[in-house]
Amino acid sequence: MKIRKIPGGITAAKGFSAANCEAAIKYQNRKDMALVYSDVPCALAGVFTSNKVKAAPVLWDMDIVKNGKPGQAFIVNTGIANAGTGEAGMNLCRQTAAHAAEALGIPADSVLLGSTGVIGPNLPEDRINAGISAMAKTLSASAEAGTAASIAIMTTDTVNKETAVEFDLPAAGGEGTVTVCLGGMSKGSGMIHPNMCTMLACLSTDCAIDRGLLQKALGTVVTDTFNMISVDGDTSTNDTLLVLAGGLAGNRPITEEDESYRLFLEALFTVCRELAIRMAGDGEGATHMIETRVIHADTKENARILARSVVASNLVKAMIYGKDANCGRVLCALGYAGPEFDPAAITIDMVGEKDSLCFYKDGCVQRFDEEKALALLSEHDIHFLCDMNMGDEEATAWGCDLTYDYVKINGDYRT
Amino acid sequence: MKIRKIPGGITAAKGFSAANCEAAIKYQNRKDMALVYSDVPCALAGVFTSNKVKAAPVLWDMDIVKNGKPGQAFIVNTGIANAGTGEAGMNLCRQTAAHAAEALGIPADSVLLGSTGVIGPNLPEDRINAGISAMAKTLSASAEAGTAASIAIMTTDTVNKETAVEFDLPAAGGEGTVTVCLGGMSKGSGMIHPNMCTMLACLSTDCAIDRGLLQKALGTVVTDTFNMISVDGDTSTNDTLLVLAGGLAGNRPITEEDESYRLFLEALFTVCRELAIRMAGDGEGATHMIETRVIHADTKENARILARSVVASNLVKAMIYGKDANCGRVLCALGYAGPEFDPAAITIDMVGEKDSLCFYKDGCVQRFDEEKALALLSEHDIHFLCDMNMGDEEATAWGCDLTYDYVKINGDYRT
């Protein structure tokens, strides 16, 4: 395996440390702030919410990314989003970054910010600053510190999300290879739509890579990972994804789209895909992860739209929870997705670990063995395979089932 | 008032009768079929689902409407959708129409069909035919028969939906005016999205009007009524809206877009708006109707998109149920809707019967009196007024709150 899964998260890569604290911003008696810090200035890339209303920390980070400045720290708070706060919110960002810069001995414009929580209220500057001062003194490069940070950024999440991989790249200025590491953490859960709460994600790597290529790689990877658990446009005011690349691994810096870049891209895809799937599967009380793979679509974008429509469908989600093989709902979700197709030409299968079931072809919902369907619906991961029979493009989307009361109405609709 | 609300529904207009029966198509011991019949052939207009996968009865009706044929009967069944049934489903439509034609003494291609229920299974031809035979013998023009038909087409609906209006038009070939009547019934409820279940609606009028103008009027009115309780493209395989115009009122036939046409258009808008709002408000256990009016938008279509985005937002719906004035969620829903706007230039108000509250302006969520907010959120109908401050276009959308378990998580998110 060129890309190898390893333990750890945000502190897995050389040069990165993390800390967390109880700042009592809104909730009491729980961790509500986290700090990620790099020993060296990092090449920085970011992707942000497409919401027309952007929180102050998003505007702050976008400005740093746009200007091509290096990043060295990322400060996250939960409880209050610092959105809809106008100029006061921007001032708070400036003051927070200045305070962190002093505490950490780095430039203020290398301090990235992320907030999640209620829209409207102003952040309590004193408690934010106290939290930063405390965290600056407790930074640790241990795996435990990384895990603790991934827990501190949780809101409605039921589990923390972190992952890391390593891979080998040619060594800088010499023979042989060095091991490069890429890890990350995220918060957010895909209950009905991902807009149920903000997604914050931070990745760190010791890979040496040109900033422009890092941004290009991130943009490429996001389309088929984080954006495939989302419904287009359905984004919060605060969604933020950052990558910090410190370069301490000692690889020959990636400066063009060569074999090393492609390997980095694959590693980035692996980490983002893992975090995205964990977010998709982390619905409140979710009992299933739902994966929909659309193959033989006419265009890549249509494949994505169709796959997302199935995993975003409340009716499909309810059906999975109710273990009710009312598979016409998958057909219906493809039908209202938008892209043109011939309903008589497509096939839809449910694919399990050892078995599979075709429930739609030749324009007709097929008769199927109810016991076999129930066995497939009893697996934790539910896979739908939709063959559009139009071209060579494919895409995969992820979601989870719905376990709320209204599922009682819809999960039993067919029986 | 030029347009006067009157009692009744589908049988309010001269020449229309209705019947219903227990056909035991899927459910036992409940009405599950309805028949609407006109004494005379009617000018027919229809609007159908935009889903790429269309149920057999939708394809059957579309063909009749497209060919400009008159309509004289509408047969509805619940329990099975006759969708995803291929050629067998189309054959069933042909046989059903032929049987109804014989029972009613009318052409088979004047028999419209509507189905709602599970996608996949075939309809039981014998029970459908037995139901039609029984209903043909019990047709009645009474208001009670109309109400009973509106009850027979219910599925997950909690209340039946019917309404009627009358207005005056110049009499045919002479002095004075005649009273024209337009009524209708619909089924469908807007829980999360209207795609939770099929919308079926049938309107009947004794107005004499050219078929082409009838279709034009219907297309015009649907955009700002039924489509404003829907999220674009989120449609079932079976959505059907039909209007039958028999012409027995004795008005001078409407053949051009004159004053009479505009009055008819206003009546049609009134009836469609009323049915749409009732559908929007009929969520399982809904405790509030939510209306969002967007004013001063740059284009009409953007106004519609923005208004729909607010009423379709699960977070807004949950906030209303929880009576939690977490108004940033309205701002967020405008932001991810798509249209460009300047967050610092818009204002958002909550408008009650006697009071109102501005909760967002100048780029900031405003401080507001929590008691006043609670009083506004305690009214049954919740109105949001969003001023985009960009142009002169406006639109209104309708929805309901969410009362399911997951609301417990999100309705209390802010406190």
Please provide a written account of the structure.
2 copies of one chain form a homodimer. In chain A, strands 1, 2, 3, 4, 5, 6, 7, 8 and 9 form a 9-stranded mixed sheet that branches. The longest helix of chain A has 23 residues, at 259-281. Chain A has helices at 56-66, 86-104, 125-136, 143-152, 211-223, 259-281, 300-312, 314-321, 328-335, 370-377, 406-411; strands spanning 4-6, 16-21, 33-48, 71-80, 111-118, 161-170, 177-187, 200-205, 240-245, 289-297, 347-351, 356-361, 364-365, 381-387, 393-400. Chain A is globular, with a radius of gyration of 22 Å. In chain A, helix 2 packs parallel to helix 3 (125-136), helix 5 crosses helix 6 (259-281) and helix 7 packs across helix 9 (328-335). With 415 residues, chain A is α+β, with helices and mostly antiparallel strands. The first copy, chain A, has 2 domains: 4-281, 4-Layer Sandwich (L-amino peptidase D-ALA esterase/amidase), CATH 3.60.70.12; 289-411, ArgJ beta chain, C-terminal domain (Ubiquitin-like (UB roll), Roll), CATH 3.10.20.340. Chains A and B meet through helix 2, helix 9, strand 13 and helix 11 of A and helix 2, helix 9, strand 13 and helix 11 of B.
